[in-house]
Amino acid sequence: MRVGLVCAHAGPPQEVRGRYAGTHQHVARVAAELAGRGHDVRVYERRDDPDSPPTSEIEGYRVERVPVGPSRRTPTGELVPHVPELGRWLTDRWTADWAPEVVHGHFWIGGLAAASAVRDTVIPVVQTFHSLGAEQLRHLGEDYDGPGQRIPLELALTRAVDMAVAQSTHEVDELTRMGLQRASVVVVPAGVDIELFAPEGEAMPRDRRPRILAAGGLNPGHGQEDLIRALRLVGDVELVIAGGPPAGNLGNHAEARRLREVAEQTGVADQIRLVGSVPHDQMSAWYRSADVVACTSRYAAAGRVPLEAMACGVPVVGYSLGGIADTVVDEVTGRLVPPGDVRGLGVTLRRLLAADAERFAYGHAAVDRVRCSYTWDRTASALERLYERVVSRRQPAPS
């Protein structure tokens, strides 16, 4: 099958792709898995560097860089005016030499470009949003910083796609609230690289205190403040926060300074360690060094961090929402607490850190769960079946 994956943002430089976590890493892994199954896969991303090659062959699939928009890294909101041009470029490309049998848009900008490109054809469109502006706005409130046109354009996009891929059951509910029929939404969670993320391997150095690890972005929506405030109930532990800018730039980062102030006010400043951004291919060593990984984001469309931690044999304590609630089985692979319940979070962490046998059992169950249900092979297999289904629906009936 010929598959076109559209991600309208520019990808990271080739030399850092393996060290980068995000939408592009997801798209790249899906492309590689599908290519390995014998499909003809092409990935389309915006070209933001005039020195980058227009095409590349990577792990069996082809990357085509679309020369549309500014030749620089560009905020999402500034890309919206370029979507029609991007769609026309794709239409011309697919008319000239190679046409996909199915198009899969990623993130809302990529989906808009994909839907625009095939508007007058019978090529079906599958869409993965990765996150939804309406849900982010509801959970983050004034901390939401997405472009103003995102929410209405995502709503319009739901009317233009044949099938939406949700990454959690909670996202299914959100998409149906936006007007999609339940039959037009399927849950296909992202996979985990079980070779990179495994219990065996190096671990980052630590002192004798129990270690709690929080990983992800460094902004108010990721809930690190809740963890800091919960430490008063946990005791003498170390909280490592990974994410944000490189460690050398944390002093100039507003959220990093705010979290340190909260720690000072709470009396736990000596228990907090901010390490800044960590390359994705080094995160496994941080997971293995922790007794517990905490996931307290106020919005989590997918459960990437808990899954990676579980694959390393580390139990997870997290808020019961979104992808976290789907991936963590309460009292089997970790513990779930109601979102925003700082006291419950602290009590749960204290009890779990004091229960060595329980953590050991959770860690073993976590590894089994990931290897049985969350490999990239399973993700690719599910997408393969989905593509076959939408293509068969769009094929014209025999005369």
Structural write-up:
Keywords: Glycosyltransferase, Transferase. It holds the Pfam family Glycos_transf_1. Residues 22-195 form the Glycosyltransferase subfamily 4-like N-terminal domain. It is an enzyme of class 2 (transferase). Its EC number is 2.4.-.-. With 399 residues, the chain is of the alpha/beta class. The chain has two domains: 2-191 and 376-393, Glycogen Phosphorylase B (Rossmann fold); 211-373, Glycogen Phosphorylase B (Rossmann fold, 3-Layer(aba) Sandwich), CATH 3.40.50. It is 40% helix and 17% strand. The protein contains 15 helices and 14 strands. The chain has helices spanning 23-36, 76-79, 83-96, 107-117, 133-140, 150-158, 169-177, 224-230, 254-266, 283-288, 304-311, 322-327, 342-353, 356-373, 376-394; strands at 2-7, 40-46, 55-58, 61-66, 102-106, 125-128, 163-166, 185-187, 211-215, 238-242, 272-276, 292-295, 316-319, 334-337. The strands form two sheets. The protein has an eight-stranded mixed sheet, sandwiched between helices. Helix 4 packs across helix 6 and helix 8 crosses helix 13 (342-353). The longest helix has 19 residues, at 376-394. It is globular, with a radius of gyration of 22 Å. It starts with a strand and ends in a 5-residue tail after the last helix. The model is unreliable at 15-19 (pLDDT under 50).
